[in-house]
Amino acid sequence: MIYDYPQYYEVAFSFRDIPRESAFMQKCIERYSRIKVRRVFEVACGYAPHAGELIGRGYRYLGLDNNRNMLDYAVHKWRDLSPRPEFLDGDMVSFETPRPVDFAFVMLGSLYLNSLTEMNSHFDSLARALKPGGLYFLDWCVQFDDPMKYAEDNTVTYERDGITVVSKFNIRLLDPGEQMYEEIWTLDVDDRGQRRKLQMIERNRAIFPGEFLTFVRSRTDFEFVGWWKDWDLAQPIADGAETARPVALLRRK
User: Fold this and answer.
1) Residues 126-156: tens digit of each pLDDT
2) What residues form DSSP beta bridges with 233?
3) What is the mean pLDDT of residues 56-73?
4) What's the pTM value of the predicted model, to 2 decimals?
5) 156: domain CATH number?
6) What is the DSSP pairing of strand 154-160 with strand 163-175?
7) Same structural domain for residues 132 and 152?
8) Same domain for 19 and 53?
């Protein structure tokens, strides 16, 4: 699993603007949260790239992930932060947090829920964790464009701290009726002369906008707030619009 090599994973995603993303989430909190936000909770947190920024903005951070290597890397990476971030080793389908949280988020389409049963279980768990009035922020979890646009190899190269990572991503349709596909991700790594090739294949289910709205409205514990493109609250997504990396916002009733 590429997730077993968090240092290479971090290099592969070094293109991200973490301060800007953290500032945007804070803006959503200030505009749409109905409660004071002190504790933030990241689903599928990985190495917790936002922990430093969010703690620096005055929040306490809790992260959930089911990969122990990622969590150990995050603990070490953020060992000098105060207050120190907390981490849970668990599955997003069903989990319990040690205490209620005020804001929850999931990044980069990491909401890997492959059936309606799993979706309901996830939202049941989140409803127990998130205080009423708190927000659930979802990055790239709703598909406004065709996932198969990534069916051709998409190759990019990143370098950081003497490590070069060539990242190749493509996608394969498995079941159109069930909206199931496979993501194939390959990393060619040059770690200061030591070379590795890593590959990971994950199954995922596309969640399209109409289905997402229907699902949220079928529940009594969440309400739809809005969705936007380009991480810009001045650009709400119109019906049928295609957008890369859309963000959606729900609120706990």
Assistant:
1) 999 999 999 999 999 999 888 777 667 789 9
2) none
3) 98
4) 0.96
5) 2.20.25.110
6) antiparallel
7) no
8) yes
- Overall size of the chain counted in residues: 253
98: cis peptide before it, omega within 30°? no
Q: Indicate if 66 and 174 belong to the same structural domain.
A: no
Judgement on whether residues 87 and 109 belong to the same structural domain of the protein: yes
Higher pLDDT, 31 or 152: 31
What's phi and psi for 81, nearest 5 deg? -70, 150
Looking at residue 1, what is its pLDDT?
81
Sign of the dihedral through C-alpha 21, 26, 30, 35? positive
Residue 51 is part of which domain span? 2-142+208-252
